[in-house]
Every structure is written in structure tokens, then in C-alpha cells.
Amino acid sequence: MIKYILILITPLMVFSASPPVPVPNVQMDCFEHQKPRKWSFCINRYNGSKSKSLVIYLHGKSGGIKRWNNLEYDTGKLYQTWQKLGLEAPTVVSISFGKLWFLAHNPSTPKQGLFYDFIHTSLPEIYSKLNQEFDKKILFGISMGGVNTLMTIMKTKTLFDKAASICPPITNFSPHAPFQTIWKYYLRSSISTWRTFQKVLIGKKLYPDLKSWHANDPIILAKAIPKNYLPSKIYLSCGAKDTWECMEGSLEIKRIFESKGVDLQWVPKPGGHCDIDQESLALFLAS
Predict the structure, then answer these.
(1) What's the longest Cα–Cα distance across the chain?
(2) Which has fewest Cβ within 10 Å: 41, 46, 189, 279?
């Protein structure tokens, strides 16, 4: 039943976006691959920048690799902020496996799945195309990408020097939780009935059983991981009126990280989904 409901609602979850307005002075080179599954990435270099930092960008639901280089989107506005602050813009690689994807792994088959492909196929291919050394490697994601960022940094043991997760719509309960648990979450949060429904359905599709959920849930992973396995600095942000309800889960991640002594920059915002503090984020990514 869930399979057929997802088929019906998926088209409704994808919105049509206007063509991106390229950021001036950014050279974007894009590549597509079909193996081991269809995926793509774009390398974005700001002309004249002397930055030795690399940002791997994970987009939100219904986004794509070219959305990074969009002057009218939040990511494109980062270039304006870097310029205003007198900072060198990092090299940015935007990566995508489609409109809706999560870097999850199945504990029963750890050498299969999207997370394994990302680590063992995508990143080596990206580094090969870049063909240069970087002083810092930063993982940065928005919304769905924010969840992917948290999942990844807690399964890769310092593969990245820094990480930024913006408005990750994580929950502190399993999609297989009893109805009463989900209903209480809905009542105490700002999330709509429709989005609660979507989160549970997507969660059940991605994590068919509790074993797979426990292997990928950012909150469970955060409790287990030692501090020295995490990036040296982490940026986490969420809006108080976020319609995908990222606040409860983000506050739990914040509490866990702070109890471990993690260098966490917590940036709460008053607005809705992905209300971004451009200046603090720009400083974090470029410094």
C-alpha cells in the first residue's frame, strides 16, 4: 500500500522551478554518470579566488546540481556575502542522485546502496576531476541535504574537516513508531498533517525495518559516535517556524554534540523552512 501511495504523491512533491540565474564570475563544469547508478555533479570555481577550501554541497528535495549556481537562490547569494566580507570563495562541488535521495546504507549489505556509492565511487571521481589539493574539505547540505550531511559525517570518521547542516527535517522517533507517538509529535510541533504523513511514508520507504533505521538515524548515530570521529567544527541551523519541523531534532543533536564537547555553532532562526543566516554561514564555509 505504501508503495502505491508514494507513486501517487511523488509528482506532487516536485515543484517546477524557474531557470537558474548564473552567478557572475563563477565557472561551472558539470558531469553525468550512469554507473553504478545515475548521478551527476558540477564543479563551481569563482574566477580569481585563491581559496584552498573545497565544499561538497548536498541539495534539498527537488533541487539539483545546477541550483547551487543560482544568483536568486540562497546558495548563489553566498557569493555576494563572501564578496561583501572580503572572503575568498571556496571551490564548490554540487552533487545529485535525483530529486529525492538519502545517503543511507543497509547494515545487512554494507557494500551496497547510495552511501557506499557516494564514498567509494562519487567522491574519488570528483577528486580526480578537481585534480588539486585542498587545505579543508567541508560537507554542506540544506534540508534533505542537511539530513544527508549529518548522516554522512557520523559514518565517515573525519573524512571532512568541517560540516554545515541547514534545516535538516530529522525526527527523534522511528517511522515505524506507534501511531500515538507520531500523533503526539504532530500535536506539539509546527508541522502540517500532510508533511507528517510525507515524513512517515518517506521514512518507511527508505528504512523498511528498525535495523536499517537504527543504522542511519542521525540522533542514534550522534549518541554513539566519539567526538574525535567528527569534523573539527560543525554548523547547525533551523527556523523556529520551519514547516518541515527541523527544530526538535536539531535541538536534540545540539544537546548531544554539546555534551560531547563538539565545537558546534548553533544558529537558530525565527523564520520558516531554511531561514538562513547568510553572514554566519558564509564565514563558516570560507574561513
Answers:
(1) 56
(2) 279
> For the segment 209-226, what is each residue's pLDDT rounded down to a tens digit?
999 999 999 999 999 999
Task: Write down the residue that cell numbers 585563491 correspond to.
Answer: 50
Q: What is the mean pLDDT of residues 32-54?
A: 96
Q: Report d(CA 57, CA 65) in Å as an integer.
A: 9
Residue 277: Cβ within 10 Å count: 15
DSSP assignments along 49-81, one per residue? ----EEEEEE--TT--GGGSS-TTSHHHHHHHH
- Which of 74-88, 124-138, 201-215 shows the lowest per-residue confidence on average (mean pLDDT)? 201-215
User: Strand order in 39-46's β-sheet?
Assistant: 26-33, 39-46, 91-96, 53-58, 136-142, 162-166, 233-239, 264-269
Task: State the Cα–Cα distance between residues 66 and 43, nearest whole angstrom.
Answer: 10
Residue 7 reports pLDDT greater than 90:
no
CA separation for the pair 169, 146 (Å, rounded)? 8
Residue 38 class from Cβ within 10 Å (0-12 exposed, 13-18 middle, 19+ buried)? exposed
245-257 mean pLDDT: 95
User: Which cell numbers hold the place of 233?
Assistant: 567544527
pLDDT band (50, 70, 90) for residue 4: very low
Q: Read off the pTM.
A: 0.91
Helices (DSSP H) in the chain: which residue ranges? Answer: 2-13, 74-85, 114-117, 123-130, 144-153, 179-188, 193-206, 210-216, 218-224, 247-260, 278-286
